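Q: Given only this backbone (555 positions), what sequence would you predict?
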């Protein structure tokens, strides 16, 4: 909440109120759903590697290449997918068992080593010899000459390193892992668009060695799986939120996950004698733009519905709190009235008895001053007793010692106004704040002073709610007055008060709200302010609004 300086007026905005329990429950549902997607990603990567290996072993090209004119998924890449997908599955639980964690870490390190060997094989014969020995050990010796591209190896190294970071369960490393996976996914967009536009420079390294569509798709799935595996612990935790930001993040991530692979795959799969690759690409691009527009429109409606539901829930909650506070006030007044009735009953009864005795003496003709003096003195005594009972109750309310602490006036005023911002918004009353720079800290009971401020501002809202909307305005001003005390003014543009009402407005049970008011708020406010050593008063003219002011001593 911004603090507005003197002579610098702006509307006062407040943060929204959220229902915490419901939000946490929905957040848990989103989290479980995203974790399931991560598990599905791990299984998909494993199945992709297994199917490619089956294709190489049983000579089924459809399992490791999309078409004869495009790069293949090499056997060593398929093996690496087995390691990467297996590691992702093993590390899925939030707190995996030590055995699962250890095996997952071994697979992740193996992926890092294989990626490093593939990169170094282009620089030296020894790494290439090690890879051929590994292929021979796995029964793939006749395919050992088919090499993976360097950018495929880099992608494997980064994703495997990301999974190793995930296994360490440190927030900083989880963030690093997510960003590594996200950047890898974004780099794959270039590969998919290269396939979509038939620009081989983006996916070929040399000759027919390059990153195949199958390989790029496997990396994309793996990258999103890494992000979602610990989505709640890193930068992308916004995706599990039930707020508008979470809804937008999930939709945007869905678009980013689906559309680039579709642009890469569909032109290659739909290529025929009827439509050229470029024509198919143009049709798909138009269809995807339409799909994006529809998704954005649906998102806008969802956000609007979500906002309406939240507004209704907040309004219901505010009304419930208002009703509850009103009931508490009624109960408090009932208890006070019951106590006063009990205490006053005896002196009032005694006064009635003495008055009856006096009347009997007068009627019997024995009205000499000596005889009638005794009952009259009794009446006086009981009247004094009743007065003392009322005084003691008043002292109890007025002079109860507050729990004082050193409080920042900025925080005190702003914190109090947050509680009533919904009421001001409901009546379309602009709530403006003006605070001086030189406000000092004060020793007060913050809860009591907030109650004073809330009561006065609520009265101001009631005062302006029945006038034209363009005239409604409430200003809360805080500054050091000439006496060196902190002074707070609450200024409204309502109908104001005449001299008679001004003289009685702080008296108990005086109200202008009819049946809706009990007339004790301002009386209690004055008692609270005076118990802090301050003063509460009002300045008003009929038709000119009202200014309620109170002071708080600095020392």
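A: Predicted residues:
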């Amino acid at each position: 909440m911004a603090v507005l300086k003197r002579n610098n007026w702006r509307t006062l905005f407040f943060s929204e109120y959220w229902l915490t329990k419901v939000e946490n429950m929905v957040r848990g549902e989103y989290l479980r759903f995203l974790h399931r997607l991560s598990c599905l990603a791990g299984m998909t990567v494993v199945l992709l590697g297994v199917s490619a290996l089956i294709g190489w072993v049983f000579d089924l090209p459809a399992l490791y290449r999309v078409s004869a004119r495009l790069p293949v998924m090499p056997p060593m890449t398929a093996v690496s997918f087995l390691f990467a997908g297996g590691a992702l599955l093993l590390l899925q639980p939030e707190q995996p068992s030590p055995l699962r964690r250890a095996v997952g870490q071994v697979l992740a390190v193996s992926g890092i080593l294989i990626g490093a060997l593939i990169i170094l094989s282009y620089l030296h014969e020894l790494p290439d010899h090690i890879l051929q020995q590994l292929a021979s050990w796995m029964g793939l010796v006749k395919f050992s000459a088919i090499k993976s591209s360097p950018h495929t190896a880099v992608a494997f190294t980064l994703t495997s390193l990301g999974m190793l970071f995930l296994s360490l369960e440190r927030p900083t490393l989880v963030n690093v892992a997510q960003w590594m996976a996200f950047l890898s996914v974004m780099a794959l967009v270039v590969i998919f668009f290269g396939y979509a536009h038939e620009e081989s420079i983006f996916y070929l390294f040399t000759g027919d060695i390059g990153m195949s569509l199958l390989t790029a798709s496997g990396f994309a799935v793996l990258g999103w799986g890494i992000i979602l595996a610990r989505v709640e612990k890193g930068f992308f935790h916004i995706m599990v939120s039930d707020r508008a930001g979470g809804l937008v993040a999930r939709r945007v991530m869905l678009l980013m996950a689906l559309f680039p692979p579709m642009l890469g795959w569909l032109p290659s799969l739909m290529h025929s004698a009827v439509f050229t690759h470029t024509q198919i690409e143009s049709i798909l691009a138009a269809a995807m733009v339409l799909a994006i527009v529809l998704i954005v429109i649906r998102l806008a409606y969802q956000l609007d519905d979500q906002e309406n539901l939240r507004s209704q829930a907040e309004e219901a909650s505010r009304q419930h709190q208002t009703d509850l506070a009103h009931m508490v006030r009624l109960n408090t007044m009932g208890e006070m009235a019951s106590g006063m009735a009990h205490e006053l009953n005896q002196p009032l009864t005694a006064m009635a008895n003495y008055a009856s005795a006096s009347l009997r003496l007068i009627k019997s003709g024995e009205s000499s001053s000596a005889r009638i003096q005794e009952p009259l003195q009794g009446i006086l005594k009981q009247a004094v007793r009743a007065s003392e009972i009322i005084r003691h109750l008043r002292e109890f309310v007025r002079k109860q010692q507050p729990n004082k602490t050193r409080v920042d006036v900025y925080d005190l005023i702003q914190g109090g106004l947050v509680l009533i911002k919904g009421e001001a918004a409901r009546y379309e009353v602009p709530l403006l704040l003006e605070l001086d720079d030189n406000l000092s800290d004060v020793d007060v009971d913050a809860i009591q002073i907030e109650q004073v401020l809330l009561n006065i501002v609520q009265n101001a809202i009631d005062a302006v709610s029945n006038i034209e909307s363009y005239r409604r305005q409430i200003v809360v001003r805080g500054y050091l007055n000439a006496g060196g005390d902190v002074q707070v003014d609450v200024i409204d543009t309502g109908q104001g008060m005449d001299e008679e009402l001004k003289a009685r407005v702080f008296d108990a049970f005086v109200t202008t709200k009819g049946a809706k008011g009990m007339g004790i708020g301002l009386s209690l406010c004055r008692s609270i302010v005076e118990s802090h050593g301050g003063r509460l008063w009002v300045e008003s003219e009929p038709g000119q609004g009202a200014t309620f002011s109170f002071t708080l001593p600095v020392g």
